[in-house]
Amino acid sequence: MKAIDLLETYPRAAEVIGEFYRSKMIESLNTQDVPDEFKELVKNEEFDNQYISTFIDANPRILFDVFDANSIYVQISVDVENKRFRYSFDGGQVESNDYELRILAEKAAIEEAFQLLNDNL
Q1: Dist CA 11 CA 74 (whole Å)
Q2: Are 81 and 96 within 8 A, CB to CB?
Q3: Mean of the pLDDT values across residues 41-69?
């Protein structure tokens, strides 16, 4: 599932994730190198689902920080011998299928974590 689909399917989670990205963006501007006018422009910018989805699609791993902050802990495990990745939640038993690449396991975990976050809000 694409990030935009997740954000539209889980609106409560989308709100929390949008605020997280907005605060990180504003926080990153707290430097003397950035003009005050630009800082104000960003602070007043609308961070809609389409805008946020571009960040998620480019770097889905940053969502782990959002999930951690909301007590949803994603663990990615590797079977070194077979070169396979799996995920689980909250240190529990491995719950997922095998994936050839870490990023595929992470994306699958993120889809499930979106629902968990939305349900917990």
Answers
A1: 21
A2: no
A3: 87
In what helix (H) or strand (E) does residue 88 lie, and over which residues does it extend? Answer: strand 84-89
The full set of domain ranges for the chain reads: 3-120
Other beta carbons within 10 Å of 38: 10
Pairing type for strands 74-79 and 84-89 reads antiparallel
pTM of the model: 0.81
Residue 20: CB atoms within 10 A of its CB come to: 20
Name the H helices within 29-101: 36-43, 49-58, 63-69
The model's confidence at residue 79, banded by pLDDT at 50, 70 and 90, is: very high
Q: Write the burial class of residue 25 (CB in 10 Å: 0-12 exposed, 13-18 middle, 19+ buried).
A: middle
